[in-house]
Structure formats: structure tokens, C-alpha cells
Amino acid sequence: MVDPLIARERHLRLLQSAVDELKAGSGTAVALPGEPGIGKSAVLWAAAGLARGAGVAVVAARGSVLVRSPDIGAACARVVEDVTAHTAAGRPVLVTVDDLHLLGADEAGLAAALLRCAADGPVLCVLAYRRRQLAPGPAAALADASSGLLRLAPLDPLTREQAADLLGERPDADEVHREAAGNPQYIKVLCALADTGATAEAGASIFAELAGLEPGALAAARAAAVLGEPFSIALLAGVAELDEAAAVRALDQLTGADLIRPAERGPHLALRHRVVGEAVYERLEPSLRFVLHRRAAEALSGNGGSIAQRARHITKAADPQNPDHLTTLIAAARAVIYTSPATAAEYLQAALPLLRAGNDHAHEVHVLLARARLLTGELAEGRALLDALRSAGPDGPNGPAGSAGPDGTELDSSRLERRLGRHVEAGALARAGLAALAQTDSATAAALHTELADTAYDVQDYENCRIHAETAAALAARHGDPVGEAHALAQSALGHLFTGDEATALVRATKAAELIDAAPDTTLLTNLLAPLQLGMTEGLLGRLADSERHLARAEALGRRTGQNYLDASLLTVLANAQSRLGKLNPALVTLERVARRREAPDEHGGNASEEAVSSNVRASTLYWRDEPGDAEQVRAEADHALALASTTTTSWAMAVRCFHAELVLFTGDPLRARSLLLEAAGEDLEGISPWRRPRWCDTLAEIAMIVGGGGGGGGADARRWAAIAEEAPQHPSTLRAFVVRSRMWAHAALGEYEAAVTRAQEAVREFTARGERIEVCRTLLAATEFTLRAGNAQPAAGWLDRVALLAEQCGSMRLTAEVARYRSRLAVLDYAGPETQSVAAPLTGREREIADLVSRGMTNPAIAGRLFLSVRTVESHLRQIYRKLDVPNRAALTRALLDADRTSRPRTF
Asked: Model-level pTM?
């Protein structure tokens, strides 16, 4: 089966042109150099198809077949004879030679003979080869060919866009394309490896390149596949059991076959690409793999190989009788447990069979393995291991497994329970860990105090949260743990914030951010909870851009290293920050990763609160995006979140139910929204924390205004909710925007529209300072409504232009539609105005402004800057102006306005 031709349109056009010239009697030649697997054979097959379709005879030859002939010279001569037989009969002919490089020196002169045929008659000669392996003879023949005769058409790697059909919609598409360097064959092998663990058919064609190798070269290729990384000649010789002379001969043959190339670093060599090693390794007999890995471990031990290099081979061929194997695996696991916890787990799994009763290392192996499972999100297995360690107690066979000593067992257990949503159990484990510590002034004690601060925050005991967090920060600073200190400071900031000291909270959060920003990735990886906590704290403090930045860094580090135990929390909080910033599509991309985690097996962790919150954020984000099909998903996600929240009365569940009520309001059912909100939070919102009340007072005041219809109806109810909002503790100060807006609704409900607009403008400033673009738009649209009700439409056009620009930046079709609706209302008011006799009468207020600036000679970008619009919006307005005034261009518009000035009263724009 021949691979389909992908992204080779240029080559097809060249070949089609050459076939057309061939039919007209002109011969030519095309050279197709390219890397192995780049698609040369597919292009040759396409060339043959074009020729046959045009009624042209085809002679096809392969270097791999010719070199296996008993007499290569005679075989090459027959190819030339077939070509000349066609030309002698007056028939045009296409001759293709695949793998020309395999002919070596080409002593038979096939390349030169075919190029002469193309020069002498109606012959199209297409030659495919690998540049690295092309011998001087055929290379000289190609170089000597007339530039008018030979057309060079190298096959380049596929770009990411060109490889889209091969890669499909897989989440690792960019990574696969990058590692494959755009090579189609390598892309297919890497996709197959990721999906099935096998190299599939593409790997078989690579393995076929070993055919014909001498035994020594074959042994060296197998050894190189087992080593899997750049190697020295001495190391390869040791693994393949070749003496120096035999190793050199083998490497010469492998280099000539382009299976092995010089590595990028030092005097080392390496297989052409990782997929070559995978294809060869896959076809090794298990017994031979074992032997080669054992030899590799011994050879690396003898020549100073790193612990990681040795451990990789020991995992495949561990020897219970060799104590060095066990200690090497443990040391290697320690070294990579945070940078690659899955690799650490692999080392530790290989160490388990090497343990014997009473072994001093048994406890450490189990502790490290439990931590590795926690970091990779395999919480069920990690929890089982930690439970077993604790149940062994201080009299266990390998030391104080029940203590919270330097191994941090209780700390890991507490963090794991928290990930599973068992906050009470997490706190109990942290307290037990502190009680068991012989030395309370330690880095472990600091981390346990941070856990207790988390526990206190969960039950809204903010005073104890602050106390534990401050203790943890001081201990971590004393023990030189900047990331642990940042974690505690971020938690301390929340404790101060909710005990009324926002100034100190801001100082603590700023210090935590400085520590996180200064920490190198390798240090931050030891505790990704720290940037997660900081991101959550910054979100509550209204520092949304900083929150997004810190969360995105943590998420990228977790993805790069495989530390995915925090994925659900990190991604949900990150998506919430992005959604609040109005980055709707990025938020949905982030939430899609949360959804994939939700569908993963249960051992990867997660809990109901995270699932419900992520569904809520997704529902809200989809609502504001409002693309076709989003409405159905909004309902599904909102219903899913509500179902999860209905089974508990915890604070997160009440928050989910309140946000659900807000969505019900947005979708047009204010009475039901009020009922749901009061059911969740209580008749006077006494069921939720005081600091949360301004947010929902704002919603209830809006409902009161809508139900009352404005102009006094619902005024008393709206005013009551505004008063409750103003009486609530206004910390964090970011809640002030909701307090102000609740009063805006109250003024509007009482018909006090000018006062409502003043409050709206104040709320807009508050929301703008935090970057909450959706809330800015909502408030500006409300201000537009109130100014229209007040009969003063003058500022509305500017507000709508700002909303239009923000809507475009956010990707919100819903807000764009709202802008269009209000502009239609403004247009009606403009048509009814006193200037109906003016040439500019059909124009809206904004259109009049733009027309006036055009008449003054200003460019579109200058107008956009002057009016705080996008250039696209200015262009859209201009098109409307030209249509309404029936003028074709800027010059005609200027003349029309000047004529109007001379013939009518002055206009007010």
C-alpha cells in the first residue's frame, strides 16, 4: 500500500508540467532528494500515475532491487534498454528510479545513462535519493546534467499546517510534529507509539533498513536501540560485545546506511532518530533485550555513566543479587521524583522485587513510590501505600512508618486527602503529623502548618488560618524554603483578608509573588501547590492578570513533568481567571482539558467540588460566547453543576447554586432566579459568608429592578438589597464594584436614572481596574439603558463603541448582539430628531462624529485612536455612512458635508 500524497502540490505541478512537455516531445529530468521517510516513494508513485493517465509508458526501477541482482551492471543495462526501446518506437516514456543512493558508486552508470536518454529524446527521468548516502559517482552525474535539463525538487519537512491530516485532533499534535521534525513517517510512528505503544507499519519499514547488514553491524544497531541515547564507540562495543576493530567496521556500515549519525554533543554517535530505535527495539526478542540491558548497566557503571542512565537499564534487567541495583534505583528515583514522577515510579516499581525482609531501604522505597503516585495523580494507589505505611506503626519491620519524620508521610497523606475532597481527614492527618514530630522547628513542620491553615480556611476559621499560615511562613523562611514560604504567605494573605486586614493581605500576597517569580522551575516543581494557592489568592484580591500568569506557569510545569495531580484544581482556577478577564475562548480551551480529566479513570483523582465549579465556569463562559450550539451546552453544564451541589450544604455547593441562579436570570427567568438564590443563601443571605453577600445582593437588586419594571416598581426591594450589600464587610475591596452596582439597580428601580448612571460609571471604574471586561460590558449596557430611559442618549454611543471593542476582544457574540440592539434603538431616536432636513440626518451620533473627522482629513487609524475604537469598527461605520448618504468615497463624503454646511443651518455632531 502506498502512502497518500500529503502537501506535495508543488511537486505534482512540476511533474504534470514535465509530463505535458514529454508528450510534446521534450525530455527532461527531475531530482527528488529527501530525508528517509519524507515521502519520496509516494511522489514517484504519483508521477507514474500522471504518466499513465496521459498515455505515457512507465519504466520503474528501485535501487534496493538492483543491488540484490546477481549482476548489477546487467540489471541496470536492462533498465536503460527498456527506456531506449520505447524511444526507438517513437513513444514517450517516464523512467523512475527510487533509492538511487543504494547503487553506491553506480559503476554501471545508470544515473548518467538515463540523464543522457532524457537529453536525447522524449524521456522524463525522475530520480529519488537520500543526499547523505548519495555516492560521488551519481552525484557527479547529476551535477554534470544541464541546468535546463535537470530540475531539482527537494522534499522538505511538512509544516504544522501541512501535517494536520496526519496528526488529526490529538492534544499532543504540536509536540509530535516538533519531535518528528515534520517527517511524515516519523509522525506516524510517534502517533502509533503514543496511542498503542507499538510502531505499527511505519516502524516495520524502518526495521526493513536493517536487511543486508553484516552480523556485527546488526548487533551494533540493536545495542544502539537498547541504549536509546547518544553513545561512545567504547560503550556501544561493550554492549554489542564487539572488539574495537569490529565496532568500527560496524559503525562504518551503519553510518553509510544512514542509520547512525554523529550526535549533537561531543564525539558521540546516535541513531538517526528516536523512532529508528523504537522500531528496532520493538522487534528484539525479550531474552536479547534483557541481556543487552544488563550489559548496558554494567558498561555504564564501569565508564562513569550517570545514575539515571544506569537506572534506565536496571529497570529492564534488575539483579536481586546485586545490591548496587537497588541503591541505584532509589537514588535515581530521588533525583527525578519532581521533574519526572512517572519515571521515578518506574524505577521504584523495579526496586520492589529487589527488597528482602528486613531491608533497610524498604520504607524509603514505599514512601517515595507513594509520593510519585500522588504527583502523577494515581491517588487510589498512593493512598493505599500511605495507609499501609501508617498502619505499620512505630514497631513496623523497617522503622517508624507511623511517624511524620523526615520522610513526610503524614504530609503526603494530608495533601492526598485534600485532593480527594476529604478536608476533615486532611486536617486530622496534619495535626497528627505535627504531634509526632520530634523537632517542631523544621521544613516539614512548616508544610504541616500550611496544611492546617488550609483546613481552617475550608471551615471559614480565618483567624486560625492566619495563625497557622504565619507560623508556616516563618518556619519555611528559617529553613531556606522560599517556595514553602510563598505557599504559606499566600494562605496568610487570605487569613488577613477575611479578618479585615486587607492592607496586610496585599503585602503578604506581593511577597509571595516575588518569591514565586524568583524561584527557578526546578525549585518550584517541589511544591506546585504554592503557585496554585497564590493564583487563588490573587484572584480573590482582584489581581486577575497576576493570577492567570502564576497559574499558567504552574500548569505548564505540571504538564511538562507529568505532575498532574493538581490538574483539575489548577485548570479550573485558571479557567475562572481567564473567563473573568474576558478571555472566553482560552478559558474554554482550558476547561476542555478539565473535561478530559473528568473522563479519565477514577484513580487520577478529582472531587465533586472541582467538577461542579468547572461545570459552572464552563456554563457561564459559553453563555457569554454564545456561538451556535452553546446554549444547549450551557444548560447541560449548569444542570450538571447543580446536581453535584444539591447533595451537600458546604460553602462551595452554595456558591455553585448561587451562580446557577445567576445563569437562570441571564436566560430570562428573574422570578425563578430569585427563588433559587434565596433558597440557596437564605432570605437575608444569612446562609452565606458576609464577604460573599455583596456579589449576590447585586444580583437580587437587579432582579428587583427587572421584576418591578423600573420607575419606582421594585424600588423598595432593590434598595433593601443595596443596603445589605453596603452593610456587609467590604473586604476584599474588589467587592466594592458589586456594592456600587447594587445601588445602581436600586436607583434605576426607583426611576432615578441619572443617579443610576453615576453609580454605573463608578462601578465601571472598579471593574476596569481588575480587568473584568465582561462585568464592564454588563454595566455599560445597563448605563446605556438608563440614559435612554432618562431621554439623554448623548453618551450612549461612546459606551456602546467601548462595549463593541471589548466584545470583539473577548470573543462574545452575545455582547456584540446587545450592542447592535442598542444601536438600533439609538438610530430610531436619531431619525426622530430635529435635523431631518440635514444631509447628515440619517446618521447615528457616532456616524456623525466619524463623518466629521473624515471631512477634516483624518485617516481611519487616527479616527480609531481619537474615539477609542478599533479600526475595524471605524471601517464598518464608514460603510454605513457611504450607504446612507449615497456617496462612493471619502472625497465625495467631504463634498457632501461641505455643501450641507453652505445650504443649511449648522449641524451638531
From this structure: 0.77
